[in-house]
Amino acid sequence: MATMTPIQELRHSAAHVLAAAVLRLFPDAKLDIGPATDGGFYYDFDLDHKFTAEDLAKIEEEMKKIAKENQKFECFEVSREEAAKLIAETPALAEFKPGRLADIPEGEKITFYRNGEFLDLCAGPHVRYTSQIKAVKLLSVAGAYHRGNEKNKQLQRIYGVVFPSKAELDEYLHKLEEAKKRDHRRIGREQKLFAVDDTVGQGLVLWTPNGSVIRQELQTFIGDELFRQGYSQVFTPHIGNLNLFRTSGHFPYYRESQFTPIIEQEQIDALAAEGKTCADLAGMLAEGALDGFLLKPMNCPFHVKLYASQPHSYRDLPVRYAEFGTVYRWEQSGELNGLTRVRGFTQDDGHIFCTEDQIHQEVCSCLELVKIILTTLGMDDYSVRVGLRDPESSKYIGKDENWEKAEAACRAAAATLGVPVTEEKGEAAFYGPKIDFVVKDALGRGWQLGTVQVDFNLPERFGLTYAGTDNEPHRPVMIHRAPFGSLERFVGILIEHFAGDFPTWLAPEQVRVLPLNDGLVGHAREVVAALRRCRIRATADEHSDKLGAKIRRAELDKVPHMLVIGAKEAEAGLVNVRSRADKSLEGSCTLQEFVEKLLPLIRERRLSPDAPAAKKA
């Protein structure tokens, strides 16, 4: 029996009740799987009928009936042969459950759970009675490929949530409504921040001028901090030879999450002439018998080669490289989501090459950098997770003694932060342990942002050295760090955190000038030009609308500051300030006075006028 927390047991049980309700209403439905998830539960169904919103309401009512029936969850163990027979005799299980049965390792216990007339192959555990499922809500239905493979049949996945009490469910639904209002995809369209076009490619982001401003401001922000910390900016190609990634271990270990390798046409033609199939080609690539190129899934092998391109002494260390490097990962189309799950993204990547004695200080500096970024953006509620290797897994590379050193370094550095720290086995990268920041946004949702990793293995695999005090070659340690993680995902989270209402320094448009009539448009343009000379992003609303309409338009566009100009203001050299960001800025003043108040907000990257300036590393 699997181990679950009480809330996971409740969610898992609700998934079974969902399936039972569906079978009562749609007896022809075929069942696949129905697990608990981090936020709720789902169940996958195969059914010719397409579920509608009305169907979900009926299914939910049927679930409540089953709960009132107070059915007992009963577990019974069977042999593999008995399980196969039971599955074959149960129409709802006959199509997909044989494959799920085959997934259970030989010698492992096989169990079924029954509640009322419902039966399912399941390892459990569950709550005791269906009456414990008191507060449940079905949220949506979506397509999901069987086993997540696009080549398989597409099933219908019904998502739901369940809580111990109605009050908790109501609180969740309130947050869900607020989350819909903050959905970065909706705000992205409304504020013209980014676009995704299927003719360009799913999961490939087009940054609009407005979105590009936010991205560039973030790059400048972290670039300033990196300069203070002694990083050197580097640039590397978007593709690399397969042998580079074979040496690093990224290929073929993670080929399922990588784009197909690029092979020269002459090689393909020659192999085709020999009668080689696609399967032969894949095998040759995996075995290293065929050369080619790969869209880079990681920047680190390139930085390793930069380090190796010249000799180093202990006096040179630490060597710190930073790059806004675009990488490419193959994600299933059903998993793509706006900016937060994409196929091409830019990492604020950095790699440090140092001695073992320098590890603690360098990791602590990386963690401090992440803290500065999160504090500046008002994301102060976070915890830290140390990802360790699972000694039972074969996916990790490197020597045990190096892993022990690296894990000890991560634990020691994380302990200096003064925030809650958890450890999770199996969450390390294949080459080393890592420290992840788990940040709560304005809605209390947790996001993994900012990663630092200690790596003894890639320097070993690539044979990196530096000359020590004894003039003998020594192996450096490599530290990977990405405070934002990916710019795309980070911006998506920021959009939702701020609900599109960015602080002045991040706002794509910081000031909008609103002339009262067409005769003042020329003066408004002069004001805009003066503001732009001060590096303030400003535009003028030159529509012939009334002032109220212009103000509403600026508010909908989330412009932080508006300057209203009438004939009297133009004649007196004044502007009338309306501020969404801070009411203390409002009133009549000269343009110079307004600029003097506004520039500190921008230059010091303040969240608001009374907030402290951003801390520097």
UniProtKB/TrEMBL annotation:
<keyword id="KW-0648">Protein biosynthesis</keyword>
<dbReference type="Pfam" id="PF00587">
    <property type="entry name" value="tRNA-synt_2b"/>
</dbReference>
<dbReference type="InterPro" id="IPR045864">
    <property type="entry name" value="aa-tRNA-synth_II/BPL/LPL"/>
</dbReference>
<feature type="domain" description="Aminoacyl-transfer RNA synthetases class-II family profile">
    <location>
        <begin position="170"/>
        <end position="515"/>
    </location>
</feature>
<dbReference type="GO" id="GO:0000049">
    <property type="term" value="F:tRNA binding"/>
</dbReference>
<keyword id="KW-0479">Metal-binding</keyword>
<dbReference type="InterPro" id="IPR002320">
    <property type="entry name" value="Thr-tRNA-ligase_IIa"/>
</dbReference>
<dbReference type="InterPro" id="IPR002314">
    <property type="entry name" value="aa-tRNA-synt_IIb"/>
</dbReference>
<keyword id="KW-0694">RNA-binding</keyword>
<keyword id="KW-0963">Cytoplasm</keyword>
<dbReference type="InterPro" id="IPR036621">
    <property type="entry name" value="Anticodon-bd_dom_sf"/>
</dbReference>
<dbReference type="InterPro" id="IPR033728">
    <property type="entry name" value="ThrRS_core"/>
</dbReference>
<dbReference type="InterPro" id="IPR004154">
    <property type="entry name" value="Anticodon-bd"/>
</dbReference>
<dbReference type="InterPro" id="IPR018163">
    <property type="entry name" value="Thr/Ala-tRNA-synth_IIc_edit"/>
</dbReference>
<dbReference type="Pfam" id="PF03129">
    <property type="entry name" value="HGTP_anticodon"/>
</dbReference>
<keyword id="KW-0067">ATP-binding</keyword>
<dbReference type="GO" id="GO:0004829">
    <property type="term" value="F:threonine-tRNA ligase activity"/>
</dbReference>
<keyword id="KW-0547">Nucleotide-binding</keyword>
<dbReference type="GO" id="GO:0005737">
    <property type="term" value="C:cytoplasm"/>
</dbReference>
<dbReference type="Pfam" id="PF07973">
    <property type="entry name" value="tRNA_SAD"/>
</dbReference>
<feature type="binding site">
    <location>
        <position position="351"/>
    </location>
    <ligand>
        <name>Zn(2+)</name>
    </ligand>
</feature>
<comment type="similarity">
    <text>Belongs to the class-II aminoacyl-tRNA synthetase family.</text>
</comment>
<dbReference type="InterPro" id="IPR047246">
    <property type="entry name" value="ThrRS_anticodon"/>
</dbReference>
<keyword id="KW-0862">Zinc</keyword>
<keyword id="KW-0820">tRNA-binding</keyword>
<comment type="subunit">
    <text>Homodimer.</text>
</comment>
<dbReference type="GO" id="GO:0006435">
    <property type="term" value="P:threonyl-tRNA aminoacylation"/>
</dbReference>
<protein>
    <recommendedName>
        <fullName>Threonine--tRNA ligase</fullName>
        <ecNumber>6.1.1.3</ecNumber>
    </recommendedName>
</protein>
<keyword id="KW-0030">Aminoacyl-tRNA synthetase</keyword>
<feature type="binding site">
    <location>
        <position position="300"/>
    </location>
    <ligand>
        <name>Zn(2+)</name>
    </ligand>
</feature>
<dbReference type="GO" id="GO:0005524">
    <property type="term" value="F:ATP binding"/>
</dbReference>
<dbReference type="GO" id="GO:0046872">
    <property type="term" value="F:metal ion binding"/>
</dbReference>
<dbReference type="InterPro" id="IPR012947">
    <property type="entry name" value="tRNA_SAD"/>
</dbReference>
<dbReference type="InterPro" id="IPR006195">
    <property type="entry name" value="aa-tRNA-synth_II"/>
</dbReference>
<keyword id="KW-0436">Ligase</keyword>
<feature type="binding site">
    <location>
        <position position="480"/>
    </location>
    <ligand>
        <name>Zn(2+)</name>
    </ligand>
</feature>
